[in-house]
What we know:
This protein is α/β, with parallel strands linked by helices and 459 residues long.
Amino acid sequence: MTQNPPNLRPDLARAAVPDTRRAGQPTIGMVSLGCPKALVDSERILTRLRAEGYAISPDYRGADAVIVNTCGFLDSAKAESLEAIGEALVENGRVIVTGCLGAEPDYITGAHPRVLAVTGPHQYESVLDAVHKAVPPSPDPFIDLLPATGVSLTPRHYSYLKISEGCNHACKFCIIPDMRGKLVSRPAHAVLREAEKLVEAGVRELLVISQDTSAYGLDRRHDLSPWKGGEVRAHITDLARELGRLGAWVRLHYVYPYPHVRDLIPLMAEGLVLPYLDIPFQHAHPDTLRRMARPAAAAKTLDEIAAWRAQCPDITLRSTFIVGYPGETEAEFQTLLDWLDEAQLDRVGCFKYENVAGARSNALPDHVAEEVKQERFERFMEKAQAISQAKLEAKVGRTLQVIVDEVDGEGATCRTMADAPEIDGNLFIDEDFETLMPGDILAVTVEEASDYDLWGRRV
C-alpha cells in the first residue's frame, strides 16, 4: 500500500494498455507531464494513434518514437520537462514534443536540437502529422481494434473528464491563457456522451476538469444541446446535474468561486454530485489578491463557505495558495494564516512563488527573499497540517463510503468522498480486504487517523 503523498509520480503517466503488438506494427511511447488536463490530451492522442493502427509501448526502448507531453506552468516544471525530453532522447533517440512548453519551441530546441518536432498544447493534428512523418502508419483493419473508451492513462475505475480548454482570467502570475488560449467549452451533449460511455465501460468516478470549471459554457452563451429526448444547457450546474444521473461519483475540480457556485451545493446535498469543491483561492489578503489580479473578497468568501456548509455539512473544501508573492508583507501573510484558521479548509496545498517567463508578476516590485518564502511555506503547512489532522480525527467512529483504488498483499488502499486521487489522502483497510477489487465502493468505519490518512474496517 502507498501512503499520502504517493510514492508514484502522477504527472509521469505510462499508457495503461496491454502490450499486444503484432509483428511489424509501428509503436509509439508516451510520457505525460503536468496536470490532469494534459493527461486527457495524452489519452486523446494515444486513442487517435491506436485507431490508426499504432501500438502503444509501455517503455522507451520498445517504441519507434516517443511523445513527451510537457508542462510549462512554472520554471521548475519547464526544467522537469526538459529533463524528461533528454531522458527520452537518451533512451530512445526519436522524440516528438507537445504540450504547454511546446508553445515555446525555441526554448525546447535550444536545449534539445535533436527532437523531431515541437507542437503546442492540444494541437492534436500537428502531433499526428509529426508521428506520421517519423513513423508511417501501417494499419491492419482486421486486427487493429480500439475499445469504445479509447486509451486510458488512469486506472479503469476513474477517469478525468475535460469540459473546456483555456481561461478568460488574467492572473498576473499565470501564463496558461497565453499557452492554451481563451475559454473554449465543449458542447454539453458531447461531454455527457463521453461520460456515459465511460460509465458504461466501468468507470465509477468522473473527475471533472478544466482551467475554470465554473465558467463552463460562458463562451457558448450557455446554449442548449439535445440530450435524452430533451435539452441540456451548457452551464456547470446543469451539466453537473446530468452527470450525477449517470450513477458514478462526480468530483468537481478547479471551481472558481463565482456566486453561481452556490447553486451546486444542493446537488451535493442531494447526493447527485460528491460534496467536494476544489477552489484555488490563492491568498486571503485583499492587497495581495489585487496584485495577483484576482477578486479581493476574502471576507465574502468566508460568508460563502459558511453558507455552503450550512446547506451541505459534509462538504469537503480543497484549495491551493501561493506564499511569498511579490510585495507580500509579514502582515499580509499573517492575514492568510488567520483566514485559514477561520476557513478551516479540509485539504490545502501551497506553492512558493516563483517567476515564470512571460508572467506579468515578474515585473512587480518588492520580490520576497527565498529564505522568507521557505519560512512562510513551512509556517503555512504546519497550520494546514494541524487543521487536516483535527478534521480527520473527527471522522474516527464514523461510517463512510469509500472507493477502492488498489489491493495488494498488505491491504486495500481506498479513498473517501473527500479524497481526490493522487492529491488528497487515503483510507487503508488491512483486514478482510482479500475479496475487494479496484473500483469497489463500500462502507467503512473509521478507526484511526493521521495527519492526512485514515484507517478503517469494513462494515
